[in-house]
Write a structure and sequence with these properties.
Layout (H helix, E strand, L loop, with lengths): L2 E5 L2 E4 L7 E5 L6 H14 L4 E5 L14 E4 L13 H11 L3 E4 L5 H22 L3 E5 L13 H12 L5 E7 L7 H6 L2 E4 L5 H10 L4 H9 L5 E6 L2 E6 L27 H11 L46 H4 L5 H15 L3 H13 L3 E3 H8 L3 H6 L3 H6 L2 E6 L2 E6 L1 H8 L4 H21 L13
Parallel strand pairs: 3-8, 3-9, 4-6, 4-7, 5-6, 7-8
Antiparallel strand pairs: 1-2, 9-10, 10-11, 12-14, 13-14
Helix pairs in contact: 2-3, 3-4, 6-7, 10-16, 11-12, 11-16, 15-16
The structure holds adenosine-5'-triphosphate and magnesium ion (MG).
């Protein structure tokens, strides 16, 4: 039977972690990420499929020894991530057992939340059908499952942690704010690694979890050194020392000793091939979703596609994209212009979902102007959200304009003007017809980022 060698005196049977909720808690610098890194090294060595939501970009070093796909925006990413591909990556990871590090370290709050939510939701949905062992690690999870607050993100993580076992899903949740993590999740964790804490509120949480008297627990916990913790499995608890990670720890505490850059393994052909399908799906000419008159798949709520092997072509457009004839033959525009359009579209794909929908809608409806109230109805979000988070990126780029009119603040698409300014250098080569084609092409590409289902949307 396989065991996970976690420390000099700690070997955990692999079976004990299947479908398990594992909590790693402790103050800053107490050794939590090292502990998580050791657990994931051992899981990778046992070929246990997994994903790790990496908030600070500190797990890429696992690639020193293991074939792991780093997906996201950090400097070590093998693949850039967009809202359009996030579900496909989750599918690939779960179906094919591809270990993934979801590096969201360079994403801003809203975008990060949307990406992580879509990713976890897809894993949860698909796991219901596949029912095979899979582990999900989440760093800084107090941000995602805060005590006493209900959010859609918390719902999906709590579901994985509390009810994932029957689907084979386990969770490793890591936090430096024990008192801020949802208690229901912590009390249900079957395995705990309790590193040092000092704050009274955190100590109270530990006292509730540990089978020891309060004073005894406090005395032992305050004496823990870096890398030491209380290991609790079931109802037994003991003090242990974790081993140090074999692979490079991106979150090491800096010192004056020089640190060697890790030599990272490259992902092999099989993974790259599977990935290229995620990024550039093969579109059959006749049988695509929108040609058949169906709505394109939306990210989280719709069922995932049927099981397919990793090298079978994906027969639907990526999430949120509709099919158009020039996807196959391409518009008649110069290559540098198309490259620039692609770059812009990639940038827009990384916007939070509501902002993407707003831009897509306004650009598709150009030159009509819409109040925030009308927009909220079209993109199906609370109006307050648009007031708190206006589409600043699209405004900065000049793709959208905002005016204060008698009926309120209004927004409208500005693709024509954007093209005239941003592509001014190409205008002589393009000519009038080329510019018209470019405007139409760009408008369609942007509108495709978040198609609105007209029959469902509100009519002002
Ligand atoms: N078992 C261990 N033995 C020796 N050194 C360790 C051990 N665990 C962690 N360390 C070292 O302690 C430092 C802090 O560890 P780590 O980054 O895991 O802490 P953390 O609790 O995750 O901190 P933060 O909350 O700031 O993310 C690192 O330099 C790490 O290499
Ligand atoms: Mg850490």
């Amino acid at each position: 039977m396989s065991v996970l060698n976690l420390g000099p005196e700690l070997a955990v049977p692999l079976d004990d972690v299947v479908g398990q909720c594992v909590a790693i808690l402790g103050i800053r610098g107490s050794g939590k990420s090292n502990t998580a890194g050791v657990i994931f090294e051992e899981l990778l060595a046992a070929h246990y499929p997994m994903s790790l939501v990496d908030i600070d970009g500190e797990y890429f070093g696992l690639k020193e020894k293991y074939e792991v796909l780093v997906v996201g925006g950090g400097e070590h990413a093998d693949v850039e991530l967009s809202m359009a591909t996030v579900g496909e990556v989750a599918d690939l990871s779960l179906r094919e057992g591809v270990p993934v590090i979801l590096d969201v370290s360079d994403m801003l709050g809203g975008e990060r939340e949307a990406v992580v939510f879509d990713y976890l939701t897809r894993l949860w949905t698909l796991a219901g059908r596949l029912r095979s062992p899979y582990m999900i690690g989440i760093e800084e999870c107090h941000e995602f499952i805060p005590q006493g607050v209900r959010t859609r993100m918390k719902d999906v993580i709590a579901r994985i942690a509390l009810r994932g076992r029957k689907r084979g899903l386990g969770a490793v949740i890591i936090s430096q704010r024990s008192a801020k993590v949802e208690k229901d999740v912590l009390t249900q964790a079957g395995m705990l690694f309790l590193h040092r804490v000092v704050h009274e509120a955190d100590m109270r949480v530990y006292s509730e979890l540990l089978p020891w008297r309060k004073t005894e627990a406090k005395e032992i916990v305050t004496q823990l050194g870096v890398g030491e913790c209380i290991f609790m499995s079931g109802s037994t608890a003991r003090r242990i020392r974790m081993r140090v990670r074999d692979t490079f720890h991106g979150g090491y505490t800096p010192s004056f000793c020089p640190v060697e850059s890790p030599k990272l393994r490259q992902v092999r052909g099989r993974l790259l091939e599977a990935l290229s399908q995620v990024q550039n799906p093969v579109l059959p000419p006749a049988e695509t979703a929108s040609v058949r008159g169906e709505s394109p798949r939306s990210s989280a709520s719709d069922p995932a596609p049927e099981v397919r092997s990793w090298n079978e072509p994906i027969a639907v457009p990526p999430t949120g994209m509709a099919f158009h004839a020039d996807d196959l033959i391409g518009p008649d525009l110069p290559e540098p212009v198309l490259v620039r359009v692609d770059r812009l579209v990639r940038r827009l794909r990384r916007l939070p979902s509501v902002q993407r929908k707003v831009v897509g809608f306004l650009v598709g409806q150009e030159p009509n102007a819409y109040t925030t109230c009308e927009l909220a109805a079209w993109v199906d979000c609370p109006e307050i959200l648009l007031r708190v988070e206006p589409p600043v990126d699209a405004l900065d780029l000049g793709l959208v304009a905002c005016e204060r009119l008698a009926r309120g603040i209004t927004y409208r698409g500005m693709v024509r003007q954007y093209v005239e300014e941003a592509f001014a250098g190409f205008s002589s080569g393009l000519g009038a017809d080329g510019t018209r084609q470019l405007v139409a092409h760009l408008r369609r590409r942007i509108a495709d980022l978040a198609p609105i289902e007209r029959d469902l949307a509100y009519t002002p």
